[in-house]
Design goal:
The complex is a heterodimer of chains A (233) and B (114).
Chain A (H helix, E strand, L loop, with lengths): L5 H13 L5 H18 L7 H19 L1 H11 L2 H4 L5 H7 L12 H34 L5 H15 L1 H4 L3 H17 L6 H30 L9
Helix pairs in contact in A: 2-3, 2-11, 7-8, 7-11, 8-10, 10-11
Chain B lengths: L2 H5 L5 H4 L1 H13 L1 E3 H8 L3 H13 L3 E8 L2 E8 L1 H23 L11
Antiparallel strand pairs in B: 1-3, 2-3
Classes of the chains: A mainly alpha (233), B alpha+beta (114).
């Protein structure tokens, strides 16, 4: 039996948000998006070996970030976060560990059980809403050559992130920045560009926004939590 | 006296202490956390947290393991099976009492001053 009362739910929520507090998650995701899209946007010229090398390095960075994201994050957090504000089990591990647990309320605590069910239903609804907004936007970017598609797609993506902002701690930088990026793409990117090429621009912009968001979060975290003495039992 | 009120006398005193209740609540929610995280979440001093954790460990409610994440040493605490069961039983008892109070059986009767 697993009990879901407001203080326990609050502790779970805080532990979930703790994963994003230092900005490293966003920073790595942004770097992955940037490296992938730069490879797509700037194919190397023949015999330009430095460009070939740069592309290989970016591809390597992307592959490394995709394959060993968790290990890289763990390493970063063991250097930055754990010595400053402590370690708590990452939310993804906690979720997989609790997968088999039946979530029940206390006997007779109908209000609390209803509250827990309401929160879970709200989260599911938000995930569904985000997916229903993001997927059409991304498909439109891939399939349509209409010049206004980037604006519409970026607004849809920003709305999807807005729907998830509370739980995933998405910053306003990305939520506001994405539509601005879409409008800029509508104005500046050649209308006849291949949809895939436009997708790369969108991904590059999105990656840059994530890098900016992650960097600001990291800087703020480091300022608020200067290296402290190690507290041990 | 209601049987629910009598149940109060059998509350688990190890968990009932406010600081330990906070620690157990956090550990129940997160599965495992290190000393520093618990200290920040519960707002306890190092010595205070250390002594409460020792009591919980003595009662076999908390398992404490010293390990490393990279080069950084961690004191990871987690609730044992026994600790989880004790916390759930504790909450059920408290809940039973609060249910009775909501119904009104424990409310003091008004005495007329006439």
């Amino acid at each position: 039996m697993s009990i879901q009362s407001p203080p326990i739910l609050d502790a779970k929520q805080r532990a979930w948000q703790y994963w994003f507090v230092d900005g490293s998650t966003r920073l790595l995701l942004g770097l992955a998006l940037l490296s992938m899209s730069i490879c797509e946007l700037f194919p190397p010229r023949p015999r330009a070996f430095w460009q070939l090398g740069l592309r290989a390095a970016l591809l390597g960075l992307y592959v490394a970030l995709m394959l060993w994201q968790r290990q890289i994050l763990d390493w970063l957090k063991s250097k930055i976060t754990y010595p400053r504000t402590g370690y708590v089990q990452p939310p993804f591990d906690a979720m997989s560990g609790a997968a088999g647990v039946v979530e029940l309320g206390l006997e007779g605590s109908d209000e609390r059980r209803a509250e827990a069910e309401r929160l879970a239903a709200d989260h599911r609804k938000r995930l569904l809403l985000a997916a229903s907004l993001a997927v059409p936007g991304l498909f439109a970017m891939l399939l349509s050559e209409n010049r206004f598609v980037p604006t519409v797609a970026s607004v849809l993506l920003a709305s999807a992130l807005w729907a998830l902002r509370k739980r995933e701690k998405v910053s306003w930088i990305t939520i506001v920045g994405l539509p601005v990026l879409g409008i800029c793409m509508t104005i500046f990117v050649t209308p006849g560009a291949y949809p895939r090429y436009r997708m790369a621009w969108l991904m590059a912009g999105w990656g840059a926004l994530f890098v900016l968001e992650g960097t600001i979060a990291l800087a703020r975290y480091l300022l608020q939590n200067p290296a402290a003495k190690v507290a041990e039992l | 006296m209601t049987p629910e009120l009598k149940e109060l006398a059998t509350l688990d005193r190890v968990i009932h202490e406010p600081a330990r209740l906070m620690i157990v609540t956090v550990l129940y929610a997160v599965t495992e956390a290190d000393f520093l995280y618990l200290q920040r979440e519960c707002g306890l001093t190092q010595g205070n947290l250390s002594s409460h954790l020792s009591k919980l460990e003595t009662s076999n409610y908390v398992f404490i393991e010293k390990t490393f994440k990279g080069k950084y040493p961690l004191t990871i605490c987690s609730l044992t099976r026994r600790g989880r069961a004790a916390f759930e039983a504790y909450l059920q008892k408290i809940r039973a009492v609060s249910d009775v109070a909501e119904v009104g059986e424990l409310k003091p009767k008004r005495v007329s001053r006439k």
